[in-house]
């Protein structure tokens, strides 16, 4: 445990150093590309914006007229003129609000459309990544990019597009109106704008840095949640009474998240306060300057001053809104960078341009290993260790080979190389006579059935879990597969039968039942080649018999690579390969190997002794 805690701390220290937004070349172009499919809507939005902008310039000017021509034209109010002006104002507001609804619809579809396509592309890219990527990366961290980073961008995008558009309209309209009313007074209102722009930029950069750290911390939180709150995680924590430690771990990261969030929200508040103060004192300054102008002979009416301050007051929130959006955009650039970083991941295993489907000839089902060496790709700064060395063997179509040997010898690894879940580092793996690197991986995977050492089940019914192997399978086929895997009777005994929900990862099923579901899936898929990485060693001899029968059903008439922990299960194999530290040290049939008196004979003797010691 100590070692694990240590390494977790190292990881979090590394995280701190890395909390820099990843550098993404062509950032601007890529953002534009995201909006490309929506260019029609964007153009329409801009047209609407301009129309609304044109409309919103009018009311303040009408206010001026209402005062100067309607209310106080000199010699009593001019009611007919006033009614006209007020009617005009009402009409303009109604029309501009209706256009506003249309605008909101457009911007909402654009913002959410971009988010949806990002989410979709990210998921697709992750689906294409090789198995090794997922063994190197914590699930929670991956989930966080999809949930928190895309979610964060979504917030900004959907709020931003509409508020940028709406606020820009108001701000432009207000400035135009102000200049039309009195350019002298308008100048006062804009002197500070360049300074605002500079300060805004700096605050934005600071925020983007904090945002990167916040997202890192969110992904850590997500990883902790995912690890600790899964069935296995809870079981582990309870078994080793580590709940308090887990809670503390979460609390520490949560505190950090809290601090970062507060920092992120607070950064820029001073700036906003400054802007507010400026905007609040402008009307007062306007009165003063008007007085000065008037006493210098410049003609300014009371209507102009009232209209001017009204416009200026209406400018406050949109202007603040725009500044906020500018900040949010800078913050979201950090999130975009994290999303692009994942979108740019290159799968290590891809089809070659000239890859072919698995040839359907008499060789279909032949598996050949030719001087295969393999090392798991090490992480950055880690050295790759050789796991397999010079492994050569051939399984003819329909024949069976069994892999036995001590734990960690590389048996599962050999199983991974057949469907090209990893690429051999040296030598070649051939399938149906073709190097697997020249085959289309989808076609290769479709030809191989895999029963892995651990069975993965979805939180769904048994029927749905089985049907995953063959989406169009009839209930009849499903029942037949379950029967073949020795599972049908067991399922029938469950109160809900095939509609029993298996629970998260199948925790409601026993180990042997889960394994038989995996086998039934292979029976449904009905591939010419099967790789069976069984874990019967975990079962008592009764269940082992049941699972073994199921495995026999899975291998009948198929090329079989069986990884066995119980030697009793391999006696019938056409060839047994004894693996030790990544090398094939012995090969032959059960009897030949016993006679040889080597590692196999030793393992067999050990297991026999164990079985005799077991009180049956
Ligand atoms: N994803 C991985 N990254 C790095 N090393 C790995 C990875 N998976 C397995 N190894 C290492 O490769 C070696 C062989 O593992 P493998 O799973 O093939 O053993 P095995 O023979 O199936 O053992 P067992 O009988 O316990 O299932 C082990 O030393 C293991 O630590
Ligand atoms: Mg294994």
From TrEMBL:
The keyword Membrane applies. One of its GO terms (cellular component) is plasma membrane. The chain crosses the membrane at residues 42-62, 171-199, 271-292. Gene3D superfamilies: ABC transporter type 1, transmembrane domain (1.20.1560.10), P-loop containing nucleotide triphosphate hydrolases (3.40.50.300). It is found in: Cell membrane. The keyword Kinase does not apply. It is a multi-pass membrane protein. Residues 43-331 form the ABC transmembrane type-1 domain. Keywords: ATP-binding, Membrane, Nucleotide-binding, Transmembrane, Transmembrane helix, Transport. PROSITE patterns: ABC_TM1F, ABC_TRANSPORTER_1, ABC_TRANSPORTER_2. Residues 367-606 form the ABC transporter domain. GO terms for molecular function: ABC-type oligopeptide transporter activity; ATP binding; ATP hydrolysis activity. Belongs to the ABC transporter superfamily. Lipid exporter (TC 3.A.1.106) family. ABC transporter involved in fatty acid import. Transmembrane domains (TMD) form a pore in the membrane and the ATP-binding domain (NBD) is responsible for energy generation. This is Fatty acid ABC transporter ATP-binding/permease protein. It comes from Amnibacterium kyonggiense.
